[in-house]
Design a protein that fits this description.
Layout lengths: L2 H11 L7 H8 L3 H13 L3 E5 L3 E6 L6 H8 L8 E8 L2 H10 L6 E8 L18 E7 L9 H19 L4 E3 L3 E4 L2 E12 L4 E10 L19 H5 L5 H20 L3 H11 L6 E6 L2 E10 L5 E5 L4 E4 L3 E4 L2
Parallel strand pairs: 3-4
Antiparallel strand pairs: 1-2, 4-5, 5-9, 6-7, 7-8, 8-9, 10-11, 10-14, 11-12, 12-13
Bound molecules: biotin (BTN).
The site of biotin (BTN) has 21 residues, from α5, β5, β8 and β9.
Length: 326
């Protein structure tokens, strides 16, 4: 654990109280001058740390920036997700960064955030707008023990986890549109891009790429998106703390990843169905050049959407775009 993480942990543990320089130096086995230097550095990053000669140090406020040590300190211990967190000011796509780490053999659970992406991508080859410091743009490396045909379970689990994190941090009640769009009052606020490397019978690694439109203003969206996309800030009428939301997302994902790993996909699927806008609806699915119409019946055991077509067949849908027929 880095010194910054330990200092932030100690300041947080003191809650409203203060911690003296002497206590910190003793606890962390470094000189008081070293503690002071780290505190100055944290202040330069925007942490509001009061230093009083009598009381010691007190954490008064934290900036709305993503700082790996701060995220690690807030997150605490998880089973898999977030045991290693890296933050970039700018990158092409966080999925690209994770892919490189995956090929270098890095352990699962590493999370990469970027304050902005120059080539953020969405599903079906679409662009994903990622303006600086307005959203959460992150990717996670997983090495699940799954067959490739069951990898969609991870997408389903990420959507349930992301939905819960948004609800707990904002009080909003998001819905899930198949496969993994998070909607608020019918407008998209977050999306998930799952990329995978697999052999015939087993998954080598999965990259979960998550984009959440947190503090974008209406004007940040191009006109053609304003009717279909929104941000948490726009729906709530006030900004949302990105570091707090980031940590909530990682905690919920860790929980659902454990559920999948311990064979509890049925419980995840039930939760997904309870919040999904798709099941029970007449829908049109576009996948490649195909258009399939039918009624969305349920989620299969592998996470696929089971669609009763207009001709009465049951089709397993694992990709594409869904439109609800009104
Ligand atoms: C979608 O709904 O189409 C999926 C959007 C996924 C966007 C995220 S942002 C972080 C990660 N990096 C990317 O380039 N894409 C995903």
């Amino acid at each position: 654990m880095s010194l910054d993480v330990q200092i932030l942990n100690a300041l947080r543990a003191a809650r409203d109280g203060a911690v003296s320089g002497a206590e910190l130096s003793q606890k962390l086995h470094v000189s008081r001058a070293a503690v002071w230097a780290r505190i100055e550095d944290l202040r330069s990053l925007g942490y509001d740390i009061e230093a009083s000669p009598h009381r010691g140090y007190r954490l008064l406020g934290t900036p709305d920036v993503l700082h790996a040590d701060d995220l690690l300190s807030r997150l605490g211990k998880t089973k898999v997700i977030g045991r290693d967190i890296r933050v970039f000011e700018e990158t092409t796509s966080t999925n690209d960064v994770i892919e490189k780490l995956a090929r270098d053999g890095v352990k699962e659970g590493v999370v990469v955030f970027a304050e902005s992406q120059t080539r953020g991508r969405g599903r079906l080859g679409r662009k994903w707008m990622s303006p600086a410091k307005r959203g959460l743009w992150l990717s996670i490396l997983l090495r699940p023990d799954l067959r490739p045909q069951d990898a969609t379970r991870l997408t389903v689990a990420s959507a349930t986890a992301l939905r819960r994190a948004i609800e707990s941090q904002t009080g909003l009640k998001p819905d899930i549109k198949w496969p993994n769009d998070i909607l608020i009052y019918g407008k998209k606020v977050a999306g998930i891009l799952t990329e995978m490397s697999a052999e015939l019978d087993h998954v080598k690694y999965v990259i979960l790429g998550i984009g959440v439109d947190v503090n974008l203003s209406q004007g940040d969206f191009p006109p053609e998106l304003r009717k279909v996309a929104t941000s948490l800030k726009a729906e709530l009428g006030k900004p949302v703390s990105r570091p707090e939301l980031a940590v909530a997302v990682l905690r919920e994902l860790d929980h659902d990843y454990a559920r999948i790993a311990s064979g509890q996909f049925a419980a995840v699927a039930d939760e997904w169905e309870a919040h999904g806008t798709t099941i029970g609806q007449e829908v049109t699915i576009r996948t490649g050049d195909r258009r399939i119409r039918g009624r969305a019946e349920s989620l299969g055991e592998d996470g696929a959407l089971l669609l009763r077509t207009e001709h009465g067949h049951l089709e397993r849908i694992i990709g594409g775009d869904v439109t609800l027929e009104k």
